[in-house]
């Protein structure tokens, strides 16, 4: 997976799997699918939901990626600067 493009990675994997008649829920294929994610993202998915099927993995990784993106949006302003957590006193 390149960058934050979870949906594109999932779609590409599904298309290639379909073209090669690969069974998405086969353990070896699931392992290959999961190995395409950043390690931290895959580990969060396992820790939180322990997905067993391709569909479960797909939904879990999308949810976790969305959570991460929401956290990033409140941590950084639109210019990439860290937002301060301190309140200025007058």
Report on this model:
The chain is mostly helical and 90 residues long. The chain has one domain (6-75). The chain has helices at residues 6-19, 27-35, 39-49, 54-75. It starts with 5 loop residues before the first helix and ends in a 15-residue tail after the last helix.
Q: Please report the total strand number as a whole number.
A: 0
Mean pLDDT: 85
CA-based gyration radius: 17 Å
SSE string: HHHH
What structural category characterises the helix and strand content?
mainly alpha
Largest sheet: none
Residues in helices, as a percent range: 55-70%
Oligomerization state: single chain
- How many separate domains? 1
Task: Bin the strand percentage.
Answer: under 5%
Total of DSSP H or I helical runs spanning 4+ residues = 4
In whole angstroms, the N-to-C terminal distance is 47 Å
Uncertain stretches of 5 or more adjacent residues: 86-90
Identify the overall geometry: elongated
